[in-house]
Amino acid sequence: MPTSMTGFGRAEATGGGVAVTVETRSVNNRYLQVKTRLPSRYLRYESQVEERVRKTLSRGTVDVFVRVKSLDRKDAPVVDADLARSYVRSIRDLAGKAGLADDLDLRTLLGLPGVVTLEESDEIDEKEWRSVDKALAGALTELARSRRAEGERLAAVLAELLEQASRTVAAIASRAPKVPPAMKRKLTRRIGALVGKEVALDAGVLEREVALLADRADVTEELHRLESHVAGFEKTLKRRQPIGRSLDFLVQEMGREANTIGSKNQDVTIGRHVIELKTVIEKLREQVQNLE
Asked: Is residue 202, in this structure, part of any structural domain at all?
């Protein structure tokens, strides 16, 4: 069953004095691209996070968001005295110019942006990282499950589109043998209109001309290849491993054959079928882009 490249996963874990939440999101990409957003003290583990993603997924742009909340806070408050003095000077200067009372107190000063910050400890013990890793594994499991569910939905859409393509190819194949006789009748009428009824037509010359036109418009090989691509698409759709690239190639080949039939065609009915086929192939292409 195919897997989509679009999905979402979320998981939480607690231990080592921290509560961890990891969210993962993925969208389409020809290759696998991993983007991580970690708290600064966990940046050293960025490569390990990316490696775990690569072991789980093979294609897509994957965003990993890690949030860590300390349950046993060891961070020390740091007061920026220089910034505090700068605030005091600016506020008192403004109060004097505006004719306002200077009622600045310590609580207000400490609440101003940047005056008090928390200095995070860079120490991360094994239990703490284990919680992060556990939440990451859970989020990736949920992401993979989400992608599989979306893949099942896409498979149903692709199967329906493939059935439409198969019917249209069959319609072209059914109409193709009727084209040479129609061409002969059309050519006979045109020649008759040009030379008049009093001039006898050379049957041999007419047959040769019709044969040449029919050979140029013959799409038998293209139809055989289209039928083969449709069958290959259907077979590939049932495989378990990533199939996005394989299906993308088959859709390209189907489009190439449809274009060739369109360029050779001189029949109105087949022309309509070719337009229908190209429309279905384009829809297949759009959906295939979502598959891993």
From this structure: yes
- What does the alpha-carbon distance between residue 65 and residue 70 come to, in Å, rounded to a whole number? 17
Sign of the dihedral defined by the CA atoms of residues 198, 202, 203, 209, in that order: negative
Residue 212 pLDDT more than 80? no
Evaluate if residue 93 carries a pLDDT over 90: no
Question: In Å, what is the CA distance from 208 to each residue of 78, 113, 203, 214, 264?
Answer: 96, 91, 9, 10, 18
The token pair at 157 is 């859409």
Query: pLDDT tens-digit profile of 24-49?
Result: 999 999 899 999 999 888 888 899 99
- Whether residue 61 lies inside any domain: the answer is yes
- Asked if residue 271 and residue 191 are part of one domain, the reply reads yes
Q: What's the domain count of the chain?
A: 3
At residue 201, does pLDDT exceed 60?
Answer: no
- 88: burial class by Cβ within 10 Å (0-12, 13-18, 19+)? middle
Domain range spanning residue 114?
Answer: 76-119
Domain at 141, CATH number: 3.30.230
Instruction: Please check the confidence at residue 59 and state whether its pLDDT lies above 70.
Output: yes
How far is CA 125 from its chain centroid?
38
What pLDDT is attached to residue 283?
A: 95
CA dist., res. 75 & res. 70, Å (int): 9
Q: Tell me, what DSSP letter sits at residue 4? A: B
- This prediction's pTM: 0.70
Of 206, 170, 189, 180, the closest CA to residue 267 belongs to 180
Residue 169 lies in a domain: yes
* Whole-number Å distance between alpha carbons of 125 and 18: 11
Q: Are 151 and 4 in contact (CB under 8 A)?
A: yes
User: So what's the pLDDT on residue 101?
Assistant: 78
Among all chains, which residue has been given the structure tokens 């897509």? 60
